[in-house]
Amino acid sequence: MTPDEDSTSAPTTLKLSVVRDVTIVATLVVLGLYAGAAFLIPLTMALLVNVLIIALSDRINALTPMPVWLANVAGVTVVLAGLFVIMYILGSQATQFARTISTYESQFDETVSRVTGFVGNDVTAFIRDNLVNIDMSYIARILIGSATSLLNQFFLISLYVAFLMAERLAFRKKLRLAAGDPKTGADFAAILDAITLSLQRYVGVKTLISLITAGISYSVFRLLGLEFAETWAVLTFALNFIPSIGSIIAVVFPSLIALVQFESIVPFLVIVLGCGTIQFVIGNFLDPALLGRSLNMSTFLVILALVFWTTIWGLIGAFLSVPLTVCILIVFSHIPALRPLAIMMSLDGRLGDETRPESAG
After folding, report:
1. Residues paired with 346 in a beta bridge
2. Is residue 1 over pLDDT 50?
3. What pTM was estimated for this model as a whole?
4. d(CA 146, CA 91)
5. What pLDDT score does 123 carry?
6. Is residue 7 scored above 80 in pLDDT?
7. pLDDT (0 to 100) of residue 11
8. Which of 139, 175, 239, 198 is nearest to 327 (CA)?
9. Quick one: average pLDDT of 3-16?
10. Which residues, in sequence order, are CB contacts of 174 under 8 Å at separation 6+?
11. Which pLDDT does position 223 carry in this prediction?
């Protein structure tokens, strides 16, 4: 083979080998994620919580004269206390809901009869045949089990976070030593910095939007006198972290409870039309726009990531779909062979590190 032939065939061989290697690695990674979900989900959530704590402690340290260790303690306290309050509300009210669920069984028949005039006899017959036979006691056991699982996960995540924060200062030093040479260590540090910055932007945007939406929804629930209003407000806050469909689901549950709880259909319409309109606008227009602008990630990729991570890790995967995909996009952007994939995953084809040469010049 002549040198010219060798030089012309090398790029093709390289591309085929990259495709082959990426396919094999991706298959093994997906299988590992699915098989190790019980171990990986709490660890992933702990890493995300750790990013939140670092962002908050850095902000506290920048705004106040307190020492670094005290800012870290404040960040840990605020974030973990907020998570505990959320899980406590869900856990305690889930238990209360499970205890009173028998009352909803009797009210459900009355509700079905009430809505007959609105939806027709055919739909009413379908509801009776498919929903009346639901074992509500089984649902109650699931709720109690979920509440216990939430608290168990919280303590495990807190344990992980404690050790991660304890090794925060030593981690970068260990990373430089493990890299072997300064350039490789700098590359690893750049990847971690990019991931941290993007996750902080994402969590900031989502938290602000979710707090506003949950606050408005809670006000509506309290004015209507909806039972378990705190639970539906917390679920509204949490479900808004699920792209697009989360905002829709956040309206379905309280509206159904309103339909069963109240004899009038007005509260149901208020929640569906009022909260539903707010959720629809935020979930389908404002949220994707701010999400794409802050992370430069394709909106189609957001939906694709939602389906993928939900398939792999269930409901928790839906919450973590965007942060995990952002990490993958950033890692791909720093690997030359995978950079084309990162460009396709981005919103406008521009990656975050492309502005560095211009600024340096």
Report:
1. 297
2. no
3. 0.72
4. 8
5. 56
6. no
7. 44
8. 198
9. 48
10. none
11. 92
- The answer to whether 297 and 347 are in contact (CB under 8 A) is yes
In Å, the largest CA–CA distance within the chain is 86
Q: How far apart are CA 73 and CA 90, in angstroms?
A: 26
**DSSP conformation class of 346:** B
Is the separation of the CB atoms in 214 and 234 below 8 Å? yes
**Exposure string over 265-300, b if 16+ CB within 10 A, otherwise e:** eebbebbbeebbebbeebbeeebbebbbebbbbbee
Amino acid identity of residue 63, one-letter, is L
- Cβ neighbours of residue 204 under 8 Å, at least 6 residues apart? 55, 294
- β-bridge partners, 297: 346
Q: Are 320 and 283 in contact (CB under 8 A)?
A: no
Residue type, 216: I
CB neighbour list of residue 217: distance below 8 Å, 6 or more residues apart: 232, 233, 236, 250, 254, 275, 278, 279
- Number of CB atoms found within 10 A of residue 241's CB: 20
> What DSSP character marks residue 67?
-
Distance CA 220, CA 297 (A): 33
Our CA angle for 193, 299, 281, nearest 5°, is: 110
Q: Which one, of 284, 232, 238, lies nearest residue 255 by Cα?
A: 232
Contact between 164 and 47 under an 8 Å Cβ cutoff? The reply is yes
Alpha helices in the chain (DSSP H): 3-35, 37-63, 68-99, 101-114, 116-119, 121-131, 136-166, 168-179, 182-224, 229-239, 245-261, 266-270, 276-281, 287-295, 299-333, 339-345, 356-360
